[in-house]
Amino acid sequence: MTDLQALVDAIAEEIQTREQRGKVADYIPQLAKVDPHHFGIAITTVDGQEFVAGDADLPFSIQSVSKVFALTLALGMVGDRLWNRVGREPSGSAFNSIVQLEHENGRPRNPFINAGAIVVDDILLGGHKPREAIGEIVQFVRFLANDDSIYIDHAVARSEQETGFRNFALAQFMRSFGVIEHPAEQVLGVYFHQCALAMSCRQLSKAGLFLAASGRNPETGRNVVSRDRARRINALMLTCGHYDGSGEFAYRVGLPGKSGVGGGILAVAPGKASIAVWSPGLNVNGNSLLGSQALEIMAQRTGWSIFGA
Amino acid sequence: MTDLQALVDAIAEEIQTREQRGKVADYIPQLAKVDPHHFGIAITTVDGQEFVAGDADLPFSIQSVSKVFALTLALGMVGDRLWNRVGREPSGSAFNSIVQLEHENGRPRNPFINAGAIVVDDILLGGHKPREAIGEIVQFVRFLANDDSIYIDHAVARSEQETGFRNFALAQFMRSFGVIEHPAEQVLGVYFHQCALAMSCRQLSKAGLFLAASGRNPETGRNVVSRDRARRINALMLTCGHYDGSGEFAYRVGLPGKSGVGGGILAVAPGKASIAVWSPGLNVNGNSLLGSQALEIMAQRTGWSIFGA
Amino acid sequence: MTDLQALVDAIAEEIQTREQRGKVADYIPQLAKVDPHHFGIAITTVDGQEFVAGDADLPFSIQSVSKVFALTLALGMVGDRLWNRVGREPSGSAFNSIVQLEHENGRPRNPFINAGAIVVDDILLGGHKPREAIGEIVQFVRFLANDDSIYIDHAVARSEQETGFRNFALAQFMRSFGVIEHPAEQVLGVYFHQCALAMSCRQLSKAGLFLAASGRNPETGRNVVSRDRARRINALMLTCGHYDGSGEFAYRVGLPGKSGVGGGILAVAPGKASIAVWSPGLNVNGNSLLGSQALEIMAQRTGWSIFGA
Amino acid sequence: MTDLQALVDAIAEEIQTREQRGKVADYIPQLAKVDPHHFGIAITTVDGQEFVAGDADLPFSIQSVSKVFALTLALGMVGDRLWNRVGREPSGSAFNSIVQLEHENGRPRNPFINAGAIVVDDILLGGHKPREAIGEIVQFVRFLANDDSIYIDHAVARSEQETGFRNFALAQFMRSFGVIEHPAEQVLGVYFHQCALAMSCRQLSKAGLFLAASGRNPETGRNVVSRDRARRINALMLTCGHYDGSGEFAYRVGLPGKSGVGGGILAVAPGKASIAVWSPGLNVNGNSLLGSQALEIMAQRTGWSIFGA
Prior knowledge:
The structure is a homotetramer of 309-residue chains. By secondary structure, chain A is an alpha+beta fold. Helix content of chain A is 47%, strand content 12%. In chain A, a hairpin with a 4-residue loop joins strand 2 and strand 3. At the A-D interface, helix 4 and helix 8 of A face helix 4 and helix 8 of D. Chains A, B, C, D: It comes from Aquamicrobium zhengzhouense.
C-alpha cells in the first residue's frame, strides 16, 4: 500500500503550492488566530493501515465534523425516534439560516446544519446535566478513535459561548416551537463544547473508520452501529454534510463527507478507508477550500468515488 | 442470476398487496387517466441480462426521468459551460418552486428541477427549431436503449402544453433574467415533448445502463460519456434526483435515481445494474410512492447501496 | 388662491436645481428614451381651480398610476367580490416579486403591485375581448378627466409586450393557481395597454379629483363612486401605492398616492385637491425620486398631510 | 357632545352581543387567564372631554400598544438617528417573523413589529441599567396620561420572561448582526416590562391624545413632540400599527392605530380625538377582533376617517 503513502505526500506537496487558500473563519475569535498555511491529511484503511502527510498530527478544532459523532451517539440512545424532531433533507440554505425553521414549524431539515445539531444535543442532554452530556460525547469520540488523549479546547468553547448569538437565536427559536426541550444555555453548553473538540487528522480518520467498515471499528473489533445505520449516516453525510455546498462536494469528490468551520473534513470511502483533511481557509459555503481540493485529487487518483465502478 | 428474477417477482408480488398507493398526478389531465394499479420493474445488469416483472413492458410517460437524458445530451454539446447557467445543489424546495429563482437571479439550482431542465432545453435548442431539438432527444434515447420503437406520446405533450402554466411562468421568469434565450413557447415545446416520451421499464433500464457501466453501453459497446461524467451525473441524481425528497431517497434506497410524475423511477447501481420501476401513485414530494418502496426492498436484498461495503 | 400658483412655481424651480435625478426605467425600451430633465406639477382643487408649473401639459406614460383607475372601474363592475381574488395588505416586497404568490397560493397581496393589477384586468376582461376592455378603460379615464384627448401610446404598449417577461411569468403563475381565468396573453394585452396610457399632469390631477372630493367629480357634478369607496381607495393608495416604499411615502408626504415607473405620481389630499407630478428618474423602489420630493415640499407648505390637524 | 357619549354606549351594547369574540392570546400564560367578555371604550377629544363605556376603567395589559410610547421616547433621545437601525416599511409578515431579518441583515422593517421594538429598547437602554430604562418609560407614560397611578404588572412581565423564547430568538439574531448592542437578557428585560404596562381604556386614550393634538397634550398644555413628529408617528401607526393586518385596518377604520395582544387598540383621529378600545379576543393577525369592529363602527358614525372629507 505504498501507493497511498506516495499519494498523500503528493497531495500535501501540491496543496502547499496553491495560492488561493480561502478565508479563515473569523466569527469565532479563537479560530481566527489559526495560521491558514496548515495542511494535514490522514487516510486510515479498513484493514488498519495509516497514511499521513503534512500537519496530520496537529490537533485542530473539528467544529461541525463533531455532528457526525453526536448524531451516531444520539441514534444509539433513542433510535429512529430522533427523526421525529429533525428531517433528512438538504436545506438549500446556509449552515446557520433561520428562514427554513420559520417556514417549517421550527423543525430543522437535517442533523448537520446548526439547528439540527442543536436538536441532537437536546436529545443527548436527556435527563443529564450539560457537563455529563459533554463527558459522554468526549468518551464516545475517544472510544471511536481508540485514543484517550482527545480533549476539548475550552478556550474555543468559551469563545463561541460569548459570541455565538446566532446559535442562541436558533435555539431560542426552536424552543418557541417546542422542538427543543431544555433551556438554550444548557443545550448550547453541550453544543459549543462538542464543536470545540480538538483532534488531529490522524485521530479524526480513525474515529470515522467505523463508517467505512460497515459500522464496525476494525482496530478494536467492536461494533459501533449496525451495517444499515452506517450506510444511512453515510447517505446523510453525502446529501447534507457540506451545507449548501453538498451537491458540489458530491459532484467533485463523490464521497460522503462532513466539514467543519475549523477547516477539517472527514470523508468516507465505504469498504476502503476513512480520510481526514485539514486546511483552515474556507470557501464561500463555509467548507475548507483546500481540504475539498485535496479530497478531489485523492478521489480521482484512487477511484474511490461511490458513483462509479 | 436466477436470484434477481426471483427478487423482481417477489417485489412485484409484495408491492401489489399494498393498499396505500399514493396519488396519481392530476395536474396533467392526460396523466390523470392512468390506472393506479400498474406496477412494473426491470433490472438490466452491466453484463446485459434483463430481469423483469409486472407491467415491465407497458410504456408510460417518463416525464422528468427524461431530464437525465437531456442533461447528458446537452453536456455532450456544450460541456461544462452548461454549469454557467444552472447550479448543482439540491433545491430545498418543490419541483416547480419559483421562490429560489427570485432569490438567485433566475439561475436554477440544478438541472433536475423543472426550471433547470428548461434551461437545459434552451441549450439543446441552440440554433435549431424546436422540432429538430425534439428529434435529437428522441434519437438519443433510442440510441441509449438500443430500441427504435421508443416514441413521444403527443396527446400527453399537448395536454401539458395546454395546462402547464407553472412551467410557462418559470420560463418567462428566467427569460426576464436572461437565463434562457429562446421564447418560452419554443423552449417549452421541447420540454413538454421530452417529458412525454413513452417508455417501458425494460426500455428505461436499458437506456440508463451507461450510468451503471462507467459511461459505456455494454450491449452496443459504444461509449456514451466518459467514466468521470457518468460518475458526476450519478452524483447529481443522488443529491437532486427526487426534488425535496432526495435526502429521503438516498437514506432509504442508497442509489442515484431520478423520478418522474408519471410514476417512473430510474435508479443506478454503479458497476452492477440499471433499474427502472413504475407505479403511477405519487407521494407528497411528487415521487412514485410504491416505486420508491420497491427500490428500497431491492436495495436491501441486493446490498447494492453505494453507501456501504 | 394665488398661493398655490406661487407654490407650484417655487417647487418647479427648486426641483429643477437638484442634481440627483434618479434613474429612468430602462427595462421598457420605449420608456428608457425619455429625457430625465422633465418635471411637471398640477394641482386641481375640489372647487375646480387648476395650478400648474413646468411640463404640466406634456403627456407621459402613466404606467402603474393607471392601476387606480382600473381598480375603480373593476369595483364598479363586481363590487367587493373583487376582494375574493386579491388582498388589501402592503406586500413587503418589490413591485414585480413572485415569492409572495408562491407562499400565498397565487393570491396577490393588493391591487397595486403588478400581480394584483393583472388580476384586476382579468376581472375587467370578463366576457369581453381585450380590445373592448382596453376601450372601456380609456373611456373611463377620459370620463374621469373630462377630456377626450387622452390616448394610449401604442409604441409603449408594444415595447412592453415584447419585453415584459416578468409580467408574463406573474400571469402564468397565477393562472396555474386558477387566480386568473383568461389566457396570459389576453390579460397582459389589457394590462400593457392600460399602462401605456399617455397623460399630462394636468389631465392626471383632474382624473384623480373624485378621490379628493368624496367620490364625486366636482367639475362635471357626476358621482363616480360612493364616499365610502373613495375613502377606501385612498386607504389602499396610502398603504400600498408605492410598492415597498409605501411606508416611506406616508411618512414623508402623508397623503395617499400612486406612482408609476414612467415617473408620474398621483396624490390625493381629501377634501382639498388632487395633485399630479412627473419626473422620469426613479428611486430604488421604482418611484419617481424628484416627484416624491416635490410632493413632500408641497405637503409641508400646504399642511395637507392627512396625519395631523 | 352628548352624541359621543351616546355613540360609545351604543357601541358597547352592540359589541357585547357579538358571538365571535376571537381567541385570547395564550402564548403568554398570564394573559390567557383574562376573561374574553370584557369590552371597554374611551374617547378623549382634543378639547379634553372624555366619553367612556363598558370596562373603560379596568386596567389591562397594553402589550404592543406601548411601542408607540417607547418610540416617541426614543425619538426624543436620539432623533432621526433612530432610523439608521430600524426601517419604516410595513413588513408583509407576522409580528414575530424572523425571515425578514435574515434577508435584510438583521434590520427590522419598522418599530412596531417585535424586532423593531426590541431595537427601540436597545436605544432606550443607552448607558442605563434595565431598571432605569424601565423607570423612564413608566414615567413617560404617566406624564403623557397625566396619571401617576399607571403601573407595570410584574406577574405578566415575569410570565413573558419565562416563555418569550421567540423574542429571545429575535434579539439574539439581531445581536449577531450587531443591530442591537446590549445583551438580549437586558434588552428583553426592558421590553417585557414595557409590554406589561397595565392601563385602562381611559388612561390609554389620554396617553395617546398628543398624537391627535399636533404633538401637544391639551390637558397639561405641554408639548410632547413637534407637530411634524406627531404626524410622522401617526403615519407609521397607519402603515405598520397592525402587523400584517395594517392594510385591512386602514381600509376598514381609516385611522392610525396600534394594537396589542392584550386586546387593546389605540386609535388617533388627528385634530379630533384619541380613542382606546379593549376586547381580549384576537383575530388571525393578532389584533383585537371586536376592538377593530368597535373602531370601524365609531369611524363610520363620526366620519373621522383620515381618507375622506
